[in-house]
Amino acid sequence: MSNSSGKDLEMGTLDEKSPQPGSGVTATRGIGLNGQQIYVPSGYTPEFRVGSNGTIITHDPVLSASAPALIDFINLQASTPPVPTISVSGTHTETRTESYTTTVNGQTQFRTRTVTVTITDFSCSYTLHKEVEAGLGYAIEGVARAAIYSQGEWDLAFRGGNKKAKTASTDVAEMTREERKRLEDDWKARKMRGMPPFVHPASLTDISCDIAAYGPNPPRQFESNYKPARLFQGHFIDLVEDHSIAPFNLPPFWSRYQPILAERNARRDEIDQVARDYCASAKGMKELHVKKGTYGWDWVKLEEDITRIVRATGYNNSIHFSKSTPEKCDIRIRPDSVTGKIFSARWYWKALLWLVLVYPILLIIEYFVGAKFTSIRVAFPLCRWRALPLFPGAPPPCNEAEAAAIAAPLGGNYRWPKVAQLPTDGTWVYMVGLQEEEWIQSVEGKLRNAVTMRQKGVDLG
């Protein structure tokens, strides 16, 4: 699958083919690998194809030269969410004795052997299509969007080199193996707990703990580097509309929330810098890999709840829980070169090139002279708290019933809105999307039935 534009791309030097004032042609400018100016007409659509696993793959030369065009392409393709699949199964092992024949000195002999086999008792799965859509919800200006961000210095990522680093200027040699392992383990722990990946870890505390530590207003000496709590009842509070194009619907927050808005405003500049670094790289073996993911659900707690439900049926064998994302929908941008297309080739071509030693040699060369960029990420919420929008001139709600009535048109039709009042400034918030315990309740009956009836391949949806 590919997509191409009917408009021609003009390439040339600044004096030869640049748009003239008053010509009515708008364009953005970039620098090609050969040093020429590249002008991208407005509305230009890069060519791309969709891989078998949903990955967007492109070698359009414009995207490796023009940072504005690259950012527009990422924003466009970032609208397709990854869809996780939850799988639950139960197994037990059996020891069996098998008979077989063998020939010794021309004579056939019968022998036996003991083997251990794994038997699946039940299996079921659920694909979170509706849950991802419900978690995104709606913004003031229309449909909400995923949060596009650049990984902070608290995460490791490829930032233009051949090894993961905290920042683009970090010397990997300065990081010890223990430090790298600690950062990776912390990242995995936050991911399993459903924490928003674009929020500083110092802010991943519950708002009630924040009040207990600093009171309603932090001390003035902390205002420059203070990280306010971003969780309430274990879930992310979207106080500054991280999933809207512009920060509308902002609550009347105090100075303690100014760092949150500053982080939101700086996010676009960080993405622009990564795009400029990628386009400015003169290396022929370079790649920008934009990964997508979800957050909002505590997968550790979800596994514990599912295990509890299965055990309650009297099932005492092994229980297996897994979360996978078969529809990755990642974005991979590489230059329009032979090596770039080889790295993007389908698996059977890579297998053939591996047999003739071409692919492993290219991997070695890429490691020493290539440039990888993986710090740009896209995050889709499964659930989050959002500030309740108030109508101009209307008084704030006085109780939960009034707040729920205002949130009813915004919260989706899957349940009556869940609302709460923040203990900091009294801001009313409502839950967007389904919480993991609500999802558990909706599938508990089918899960119990699959276990007791020993059913296999059950769709819990």
Q: How would you describe this protein?
A:
The protein has 461 residues and is an alpha+beta fold. The chain has helices at 14-17, 67-77, 129-136, 177-192, 207-214, 258-280, 299-312, 338-343, 347-355, 358-369, 400-407, 436-452; strands at 2-3, 10-12, 27-31, 37-41, 48-50, 56-58, 83-104, 107-127, 138-139, 142-143, 147-150, 157-158, 164-165, 231-232, 235-238, 286-295, 318-327, 331-333, 371-373, 376-381, 383-387, 419-421, 428-433, 458-459. Strands 1, 5, 6, 11, 16, 18, 19 and 20 form an eight-stranded mixed beta sheet that branches. A hairpin with a 5-residue loop joins strand 12 and strand 13. Helix 2 (67-77) crosses helix 6 and helix 7 (299-312) runs parallel beside helix 12 (436-452). Mean pLDDT is 80; it is low at 1-36 and 220-224.
Shape from CA axes? globular
Q: Which class of secondary structure composition applies to the elements?
A: alpha+beta
Counting H and I runs of at least 4 residues, what is the number of helices? 12
Q: What value does the average pLDDT take?
A: 80
Q: Biggest sheet, open or closed, and with what strands and sense? A: 8 strands, mixed
Distance between the termini: 30 Å
For the secondary structure, the number of strands is 24
User: Strand-residue fraction?
Assistant: 25-35%
Rg of Cα set: 27 Å
Query: What proportion of the residues is helical, as a percent range?
Result: 25-40%
Structure summary:
This protein is of the alpha+beta class.
